Amino acid sequence: MMKQMLLSSTVVVGAYFAVSGAVGTKAAAAELTLCWAAWDPANALVELSKDFEAESGNTMKFEFVPWPNFADRMLNELNSGGKLCDLMIGDSQWIGGAAENGQYIKLNDFFDKEGIKMDDFIPATVIGYAEWPKNTPNYWALPAFGDVVGWTYRKDWFSRPELQAEFKQKYGRDLAVPKTFAELKDIAEFFQKRQIDGKTVYGAAIYTERGSEGITMGVMDVLYSFGFEYGNPKKAYELDGFVNSADAVKGLEFYKALYDCCTPPGHSDAYMSEDIDAYKSGQVALQMNFAFTWPGIHADANVGGDKSGYFPNPAGPTGVQFAQLGGQGISVVAASDKQKEALDYIKWFAQPEIQKKWWALGGYSALRSVVEDPSFATSQPYAQTFLDSMAIVKDFWAEPSYASLLQASQKRFHDYVVANQGTAKDALDGLSEDWKDIFEDEGKY
Amino acid sequence: MLHSSIDRAAHATPPVLARRIRGLSDRAIAWIFVAPSIVLLLAINIFPLIWTVRLSFTNFRVNRPNEPVQFVGLRNYLNILTDKDIWLTMQATAHFLIWTIVLQVLIGFALAYLINKKFRGNDLWTTIIVLPMMLSPAVVGNFWTFLYQPQIGLFNYAIGFLTGADPSSFSMIGDTSLAPWAIIIVDTWMWTPFVMLICLAGLRSIPSSIYEAAECDRASSWRQFWTITIPMVLPFLMLAILFRGIENFKMFDLVVQLTGGGPGSITELTSINLKREAFEKWRTGYASAYAVILFVTVFGLASIYVKALNKVKQR
So where does this one cross the membrane (chain B) (predicted)? Predict the structure, then answer.
């Protein structure tokens, strides 16, 4: 009897420890918070992360902030050493500041240990999203979402015989995807205030937003192909003659001309969502926007499917062709108490099969094995355009002082393009001076 | 009943504590009651103010925790006061401030004068008129952007209907000459009811016997208005101007929603500019100096104004 009692007690005690052990294991599972912008790809990532939750036992929480407030909110979080985010999919331009101020952890040792090679990712995304200083093997993020500014056009309007005939008569060439910015402007002018199906339509929706980064992304997207350089390639931070070169001035004049001639009324403060709205509502023939918008457009009931086509940035007057890089890398926040679990997430995310699924869900993978797969280019109507665009990218400053550099360009560009103040040369001369002042404050001279 | 409760509480107080409290002076007890508020005030108002003044003499940047903070003397103040862009934002703020106050006082007083008359539906109209000021400025800013939309906006449609102009031929928030007026119109629409309510309080505080005496003296309505109504409502009007002046000097949310400070920097008021310096460029020391300058300006102007208000009240 005593023995039986002892045995049953042992069983009970054993069962208790087994259960508490299990509970203990469960309690050890972490709740990770991933911070990113509130946009379509974020929803795809929520879906994708369910696999990680199932696999690791960790749970994922998401903090998504709309684009216009994304930088304000998240940089506040990083600067204050907040613990809200364990993982941050931060904008490419933050990398310099986040690296130098110790806000992201350096990932080199982790990549070496886990066999994650940066050579496996699209080179432009590694430089743009992961490296600081640029072009050095110091990695602060894993390329997470490749993005680039490109164009969407109304394929159904372009294919109308009467419009084709009229266009050919007027411009002496076919109404087709523009190869140069000059051709793009002709097309935009052709559609401006045209009556199509009883509705007045307009030429192009371009970026003009003042508050965050909109007009800078739009202007830069055009300026690169006109010959704009951020500085002397042979001497760092020598700006005069490059930022305000004659070619750059022509590029800025072109952007203003495009804004003046061919945008819908009231398009004076437009960024990603305003351009999407203008395009989806059937107001414009052409839309400048980041590639992340393309899956949504393709699926849209009004303008999706065969009604829309996609093309990369056309070339400038000398045939040079570049596009503004978008997209982000995923980093581990230095203030996080759950760095190990956050690194586990990155390790999981870097796997080729997860990256493949990421693309299938609507996320632009930056892994070469995904985008170089022979079936990739035909997997979606915009896939080839994405590949072509990613091959010609340039990015804005990623210096620690990027926010000040950006504010200066926002003001100079908006003052000239939208508010009609001064000339393009004044704007770029002023911008060069502003940027020099900022770099002087930084002790770069 | 109340006394017995107090007595019971007094009896329940431990004798040691009761002896201690009995030994305190009235002044000490008053301090005990006031102390929490003073501590809170010091912690959340005075300390940050002193800290801001201290930071304004440094090159501190909150996003560069690893960089040494250097004392820069008056450099931040000099840079601000010699920056022509900042003077442009000051001009934009002055334009906004002056016109909103002029319009709100004129329309607010006129509405109060009308509402003060007895007529059917008086209360209903008062309620309808005060509705805009009960809305959130962010919401107001947002829906006025739709009203101002050249293609679908009601405002443009109404102007087009009245003038025959094409509604999509002008953009209230995209045109540099119209945008400053666009924000003035919205602020006036939202805050005129506030001025109206204050004026109404002033009008209703005038004893009817004064008007009756003026009637006996055969004073005309016009004379009654200028010699009774206006002088007696003036302190209320001045108070409304003070409130609206302080509020509009620090205007932020409504304008950010409407124009974001654009087009260009035409509607970039000082508070928007200050926010950009502090939380977008992260120039904390510089922004602190900017905040101190604005604080001294508002505090100085408000003090002069309050003295004038007191003089008017004494008359």
Answer: 28-51, 96-115, 127-147, 178-203, 224-246, 287-306
